[in-house]
Amino acid sequence: MPLPVSPEILVVLGTRPEAIKLFPLIQRLQEHPRLRPVVVTTGQHKELVDYVLETTGCEVAADLGVGRPGLTLNQLTSSVVAGLDEFILRRYGPPPAHITGRVKVDHYPAGCIVHGDTSSAAAAAITAFHLRIPVLHVEAGLRTGTTLEPFPEELNRQLIGRVASFHAAPTRANVQNLVREGVEIGRTFVTGNTGIDALQWTAKRSVPYDRPELDWLETDTTSPVITVTAHRRENWGEGIANIARAVRRLTETHPEVRFVIPVHPNPTVAATVREVLEGLPAVTLTSPMEAKPFGRLLARSTLVITDSGGIQEEAPALGVPVLVTRATTERTEGVEAGTLELVGTDTERIVASATRVLDDPEARAAFSRQPNPYGDGHAAERIVAAVEHLVFNSPVPRSSGPGFVRSEVLEWAGFHRTDALDGPTFERDDVTLEHDRAELEDVVLQPLTSDGPTDVVAE
């Protein structure tokens, strides 16, 4: 017997990294015979997100259009909550007062998928919770141990962890983090990371870099290449300046090395990077790259220097050493395995570690000896199988880690088990609304628009 909810699944995303990591999952849901994804974008990185989803064949149901210059984190959060609430009410109407078990009547989504650690993901999770839609957290359980590094991502992860009914964790260590915080192990599922799925999908497609400043990469197959990315909020200002200074020093000590730096669109980040590095012959500054050409760039790299989270998983999948320019990382498995090295933002330390990798083949090889702890490229397949099991009580999907228990997930989402002769079913209690249903019937909701600039504070 299917769950007493509609088999539509909300998928909410706002940033380019979210789009890259969620498109394999959206594709799987679109191909599913009984589940249908309803993709909602927030409009933060609009052009970049639209490009990723369009090129990968993922359909978008709505754009909340919250992106605008100078948006603060609180403004972003409140805009996403209000916009997503309006979209859900406009598409589905008020929440059913009671779940009856008849799919055609109980028209609300079976769940809301959010990814990772952005403020928009946290806002979407809270919105879904307020409407009694179960939250499924993809890339769950990553922790650094301090809520200020990275800020605000670390606390966003913990907030979503409290709201979510189901946790798709990339690794066993992520599950352990959740269990230590009081999450029942029966609501967790080790899946690997969908970012590896996306990387493998793009790696199978030979694409041009498609920008003139990178034409030299089409013909130069021998020069060592270091890819550098920097954008984390806690590194803004002096931290990013120190990373840029390290690159400048390395151009002096290793003139044979070429550097490619996709510059983050945030004006604060871009100004700092350009002030230190613009005009250096060995440094190519380019705009943020799409998933396919960037995957090709990672594969071409000798070394990656980054404060990004996803790249800490993607580059090791290609056997490329990674220096992480952060004081802490939620990808502790990579540090333990030796695929990552934490170097912080101290210029001298970055230069010393990069020099060791460039000059010592044995040190470079040590980074790729261990298998990538973040997955085998089948994370999206496992997550969809888990959703299918939750919605339709299909066979339990298998995992390399602890399995999850359907009843525990549903009970956390507010369902109550009712035993019957043909097996257990699950129902939810009446949903208490702020207004009487009669008061909502005549409300006219204005269509959402996404007009205007799309720049937004970086996350």
From TrEMBL:
It holds the Pfam family Epimerase_2. Residues 28-387 form the UDP-N-acetylglucosamine 2-epimerase domain. Keywords: Isomerase. The keyword Isomerase applies. Signal peptide: none annotated. InterPro entries: UDP_GlcNAc_Epimerase_2_dom (IPR003331), WecB-like (IPR029767). The keyword Transferase does not apply. Its EC number is 5.1.3.14. Belongs to the UDP-N-acetylglucosamine 2-epimerase family. This is UDP-N-acetylglucosamine 2-epimerase (non-hydrolyzing). It comes from Isoptericola hypogeus.
